[in-house]
Q: What sequence folds into this?
């Protein structure tokens, strides 16, 4: 745990008592703050009180005594309307912050030289965070990973000069971290997302920009116009900017040339790493993730040999194009995290002959946006509520069956793929749907796929499969 010593002896209000909220409250208390916490969920309040955290309805609190209001990132700050606690804090002139801000203040207070890599973007931030941390850790660096992935940031070990931090940051967290100041800040990409919480795309982009604007070095993917403009704006302001691109050669920066990761310096190119043969980093989207990780790891002092070794040993993230097993020429891929068509596109673009398991609780637009990938699909196995609509979209373009359940889909896909003599083929779960019609969440769905695949006679788990 990181004691929040920057608030020692001060009164702090806190709202949101989920796992990270309780961890944040404990860190404040450990640092010497007097915390008064609350949540709209009575069960969460009772759980916090049982751990010794002082709780009371903040509507009746004396806000004049609070030095700060620490809010869970899941609580609305601006849209669709501010939460009632936000109105109380603003009315009393109390600053509103989150746990990432607490972390930044503690690092500045005790070990400002501790390498800090912060990652954001609409897509790919979890893989980039995990990959960067893996490269650092496999090189022997003292590495802490958390934030919007894995551990709550205040549960990490306290800052010290040689301890490396890799922190995934959502837009909600950045919105509550006014002094965020990474050694290297990564902004991967921007597409419309969370607009119910941010109002407009402009506001959403401006929040994401704060992370790289506060960085010593800003690493920015420039394959979309929003991020390209941010890179130009920061460079004009005198910030150090490293551009990355998964599809365009650059004069300066890092870009992908097939599976080669290239560095450009004044138009002169050199290969700094490669992804050939690394199954956990297939696809153009993973090239972008790897480029960002390479640039960040170089920035904090790793050499190219350490970076390449880390890339090659990266096991990937569960449920994100996760390699779970192989039998002869058939590879089994768990991409359960793909809960809409856009999220399924990277997996479909990464393989040439696919036995595709799709369906679940449908999202708006269905799989029509994926029509360009239909020639890669040898056969589709449709499950859940979306099956009738998906079958209508596939029509005569793709052979399909309505399997109904995931277990049946895996069994039938495995049987058909085994008979395919066209070379390597893939049994791919990339549902393009939410899971809630048949599973609690995408993790449970992915685990069910993993178990069904592993139960097939002769399937061998791949290193890193869970």
A:
């Amino acid at each position: 745990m990181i004691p929040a010593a920057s608030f020692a002896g001060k009164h702090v209000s806190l709202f949101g008592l989920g796992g990270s909220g309780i961890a944040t409250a404990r860190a404040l208390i450990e640092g010497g703050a007097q915390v008064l916490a609350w949540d709209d969920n009575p069960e969460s309040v009772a759980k916090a009180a049982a751990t010794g955290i002082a709780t009371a309805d903040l509507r009746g609190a004396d806000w004049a005594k609070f030095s700060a209001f620490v809010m869970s990132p899941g609580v609305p700050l601006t849209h669709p309307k501010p939460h009632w606690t936000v109105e109380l804090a603003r009315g009393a002139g109390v600053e509103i912050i989150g746990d990432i801000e607490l972390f930044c203040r503690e690092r500045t207070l005790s070990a400002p030289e501790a390498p800090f890599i912060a990652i954001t973007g609409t897509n790919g931030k979890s893989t980039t965070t995990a990959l960067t941390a893996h490269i650092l850790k496999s090189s022997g660096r003292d590495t802490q990973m958390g934030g919007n992935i894995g551990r709550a940031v205040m549960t990490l070990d306290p800052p010290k000069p040689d301890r490396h931090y890799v922190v995934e940051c959502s837009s909600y967290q950045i919105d509550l971290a006014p002094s965020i100041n990474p050694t290297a800040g990564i902004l991967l990409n921007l597409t419309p997302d969370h607009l119910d919480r941010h109002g407009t795309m402009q506001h959403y982009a401006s929040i994401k920009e704060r992370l790289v604007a506060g960085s010593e070095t800003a690493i920015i993917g420039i394959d979309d116009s929003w991020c390209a403009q941010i890179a130009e704006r920061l460079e004009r302001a005198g910030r150090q900017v490293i551009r990355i691109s998964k599809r365009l050669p650059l004069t300066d920066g890092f870009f992908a040339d097939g599976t080669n990761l290239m560095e450009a310096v004044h138009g002169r190119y050199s290969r700094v790493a490669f992804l050939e043969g690394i199954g956990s980093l297939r696809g153009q989207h993973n090239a972008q993730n790897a480029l960002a990780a390479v640039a960040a790891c170089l920035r904090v002092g790793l050499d190219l040999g350490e970076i390449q070794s880390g890339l090659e040993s990266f096991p990937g993230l569960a449920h994100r194009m996760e390699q779970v097993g192989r039998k002869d020429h058939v590879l089994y891929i768990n991409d359960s995290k793909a809960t809409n068509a856009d999220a399924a596109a990277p997996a479909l673009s990464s393989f040439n002959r696919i036995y595709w398991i799709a369906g679940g609780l449908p999202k708006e637009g269905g799989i029509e946006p994926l029509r360009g990938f239909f020639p890669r699909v040898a056969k589709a196995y449709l499950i859940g509520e979306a099956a009738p609509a998906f079958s209508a979209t596939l029509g005569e373009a793709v052979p399909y069956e309505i399997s109904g359940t995931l277990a049946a889909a895996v069994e039938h896909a495995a049987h058909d793929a085994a008979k395919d003599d066209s070379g390597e083929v893939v049994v791919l779960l990339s549902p393009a749907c939410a899971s809630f019609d048949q599973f609690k969440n995408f993790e449970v769905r992915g685990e069910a796929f993993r178990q069904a695949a592993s139960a097939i006679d002769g399937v061998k788990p791949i290193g890193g499969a869970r």
Q: What stands out?
A: The chain has three domains: 5-97, 101-313, 322-454.
